[in-house]
Design a protein that fits this description.
The chain is mostly helical. The protein is built from 14 helices and no strands. Helix 2 (24-46) packs across helix 8 (204-232), helix 2 crosses helix 11 and helix 3 crosses helix 8.
Length: 398
């Protein structure tokens, strides 16, 4: 590309010796998804039934997908350029509309949710096609494929928004399946073929930092829920103990992901031969499990703080044990991708959580949550002791 072309292009300039930091406008954009995650956890708490879990699961898949695709786009486009910033602000408006529709997405606001989602997915793809110069053939064809896939899934999103709630579930399930199959199939499209992994090359450090910050968003939402619920509860020794348990659980989850994993992931993807392949698996697909685990843990914390004493029913067991299980499953698969082995500390943690399930009904929510938190703390401590510093972890197997 000529110097004039570089000045006119909205693409980031790549420097192989350093990675782009996440910009302030990207962080500002993410504020919409702080609200979205809060809406997801509150909706799950209010509809913790098999049908409600299925519905909220679809909404969670949609929220994560629209965010992670935006992260790919801002990995390629320069958010410091005014047109890209304006696009992000427009997407923020649509994202806020989508987020406010989440609690009633399977009731009276299904069409609003669908239209906002489709606008973000298709609109962002069309903007990218217009924004990059014609000389960037690979990028343009890649997003032409993506725009076609998103338009096809958009038909099912909008049809679901117009349908009754029972049919909406199935139509949106088809839409989600199309969305998630796209990257795995490299958006193979008649007439355009499939994209190559070279078309998906990303600036690895930026992608790793972007997803790590989303983990912070999810953990922050969990802490907000914990603080808000505790502030409204009667302050007793039991509620104070429950508050400490919930907070320690969030700290343990932070430690498990960030002590070594986040930096190791950033280093590994930055030096990978095919950054797109690793970003697609480790950061696009597997991070969804990590975020989902945090959301379910937040629901469990709210249950704990609302009723620390008494009997633990199926809902409490699923939230207080299921959340950490999903989280550890996501983290161990993520670390397996970047390190090449399954960490023993995480496997033991998963085994202990599974062993705790039969005893769940015998424990009060307070002690059930305390046991799950202790297991997370064990995993965090094991990893910290066995791996030590990030420098010492290169040849270690936790």
């Amino acid at each position: 590309m000529t110097d004039a072309g570089r000045r006119g292009s909205l693409l980031r300039e790549r420097n192989p010796d350093q990675h782009h930091r996440v910009t302030f406008v990207e962080l500002f954009f993410d504020l919409v998804f702080v609200f979205a995650i809060t809406q997801i956890s509150h909706t799950l708490l209010a509809h913790f039934t098999p049908l409600g879990v299925a519905q909220v699961g679809i909404l969670m898949l949609a929220v994560w997908w629209v965010w992670v695709f935006m992260s790919w786009v801002t990995n390629w486009l320069d958010p410091e350029r005014t047109p890209v910033r304006v696009m992000l602000f427009v997407m923020m408006v649509a994202g806020l509309l989508m987020s406010t529709s989440i609690p009633q997405a399977f009731a009276g606001r299904g069409l609003t949710f669908a239209l906002a989602f489709v606008f973000m997915q298709v609109g962002r793809s069309l903007f990218f096609i217009v924004a990059v110069p014609e000389s960037e053939t690979g990028h343009r064809r890649n997003f032409q494929r993506i725009a076609i896939w998103m338009s096809v899934s958009g038909v099912f999103w909008i049809a679901g928004g117009l349908a009754d709630p029972a049919a909406r579930l199935w139509l949106w399930l088809i839409a989600v399946a199309i969305e998630y199959a796209g990257p795995a199939m490299r958006f193979r499209t008649p007439g355009l073929g499939a994209s190559t992994m070279r078309d998906w090359d990303v600036e690895g450090g930026h992608m790793a930092e972007r997803c790590a910050l989303f983990i912070i968003i999810a953990l922050g939402e969990s802490i907000v829920v914990t603080g808000a619920t505790f502030s409204e509860a009667a302050w007793t020794w039991t509620s104070a103990f429950a508050f400490v348990i919930a907070l320690l659980g969030s700290i343990a989850m932070w430690w498990i992901y960030f002590h070594i994993g986040a930096e190791a992931g950033s280093h590994r993807i930055s030096h990978a031969d095919e950054t797109g392949r690793m970003a697609r698996l480790a950061y696009t697909y597997l991070h969804l499990l990590i975020v989902a685990g945090i959301v379910v843990c937040a629901v469990g914390d709210e249950m704990l703080l609302a009723h620390p004493d008494g009997h633990s029913g199926m809902k409490e067991i699923l939230a207080m044990i299921g959340g950490p299980l999903i989280y550890l499953a996501g983290v161990i698969l993520f670390k397996r991708t970047i390190r090449g082995h399954l960490q023993l500390s995480h496997l033991v943690g998963i085994g202990l959580l599974l062993a705790l399930i039969p005893f769940g009904a015998m424990l009060s929510p307070l002690w059930l949550s305390a046991a799950a938190m202790a297991i997370l703390m064990l995993v965090a401590a094991w990893e910290a002791i066995s791996l030590g510093s990030p420098e010492a972890s290169a040849g270690s197997h936790a």
